[in-house]
Design a protein that fits this description.
312 residues, alpha/beta, Rossmann fold, 8-stranded mixed sheet
Length: 312
């Protein structure tokens, strides 16, 4: 089976970050590796560096459709080679060959599945913000395993190329959730396989707020598909409605946060890690503020900004 790998690169990404990404991605088995680079100027040296490192490059001037546009351009670029599967990664994604193979095997075994991915983990947990998000991901992984509507952030995972050719919505702020909603509405599904995918978390509360505000805004746009989702299976429909309603009220978690103390101690086995409990309190308020801000911008017709996240 032919596998291609696609990595969108924003204008904000540093040269060294791209080099490290290419070094990792080239360790994976793929027929073609495509970096879609949104240029940060007329003479963007990152383009030439990527080509010198032996990967294909699709150059983009401007940011039409942002990440969705970059992936759509990669789909068009791959139309000549027509791979069977496409592994979509971010510049900070780290995945091993075993997890990729598990995703492909799962897709081969289930023709109704359009995508397969694995649980997410943080590999830059070095301060209170990133350590708190690391704890959050443990909850997300649990909920993802139980939910009938599976939406993998960033569409990080293996996707069938023929399904991907349906294209991403370039007007969607959260193109990954938009695509997942459309696929589930058409009776397809996403699979969670055994394996691990690592990525970096925001390193400041400001970055975290900006990221989640964008996610919340994108979630509000999903209501446009409420009629289409009536065709989906009942458990998928319930999971979808819960995802775009209850998540907008994280403040309801506040009374239950003390229950996390024994879990934190049991997992980390370090008293010093109790700081994560206080991080979760801050996290709840920042998350609620980002949800409110996204809602206010949405009803005013004001789009959110796509800001850079610092890499560590």
């Amino acid at each position: 089976m032919k596998l291609a790998i696609v990595i969108p690169v924003s204008p904000f990404e540093d040269l060294k970050v791209i080099e490290e990404s290419i070094e990792h991605v080239k360790s994976l088995k793929a027929e073609k590796i495509v970096y879609v680079i949104d240029k940060n100027g007329e003479n963007d040296i990152r383009v030439e560096l990527a080509r010198k490192n032996g990967v294909d490059v699709v150059e983009r001037t401007g940011r039409r459709g942002k990440r969705a546009g970059a992936i759509n351009d990669a789909i068009n670029y791959l139309s000549q080679s027509k791979p069977d599967f496409v592994l979509i990664m971010d510049i900070d994604t780290r995945i091993d060959e075993k997890t990729v193979e598990a995703c492909i095997s799962a897709l081969l075994a289930d023709q109704r599945a359009y995508m397969a991915s694995a649980r997410r983990y943080i590999y830059n947990a070095r301060n209170l913000v990133s350590e708190t998000i690391e704890a959050e991901y443990k909850l997300i992984n649990f909920l993802l395993s139980k939910s009938a509507f599976k939406q993998f952030n960033g569409m990080i995972g293996v996707v069938r190329y023929d399904i991907l050719c349906k294209g991403l919505n370039e007007t969607a702020i959260a193109e990954d959730a938009d695509f997942a909603t459309r696929m589930h509405a058409n009776g397809l599904k996403a699979l969670l396989v055994d394996g691990k995918i690592f990525e970096q978390a925001p390193f400041s509360w400001k970055e975290f707020y900006s990221q989640r505000k964008r996610w919340y805004f994108g979630g509000l746009q999903l209501w446009r598909y409420r009629k289409e989702m009536k065709k989906a299976e009942r458990n998928v429909r319930i999971s979808w409605y819960l995802a775009i309603t209850i998540t907008y009220f994280p403040i309801i978690m506040l009374p239950f946060l003390p229950l996390s103390i024994p879990l934190i101690l049991a997992h980390y086995r370090k008293i010093s890690k109790l700081k994560v409990f206080f991080g979760l309190i801050i996290y709840t308020f920042v998350l609620q503020a980002s949800a409110i801000s996204a809602f206010l911008d949405y009803i005013r017709g004001k789009e959110v900004e796509w800001n850079a996240i610092r890499r560590v």
